[in-house]
Amino acid sequence: MNQTCLLVTLPKPQCIDRVRQLLHAQAPGCEVLEQPSDCSQAASCRWLQALPQDQAGEVQALLSDVVEVLEQTRHAFKSAQLAKLRKRTMCVLESLSNNCESGKTPRE
Question: Alpha helices of the chain — where are they, by DSSP H?
Answer without folding.
Answer: 13-26, 53-72, 80-98
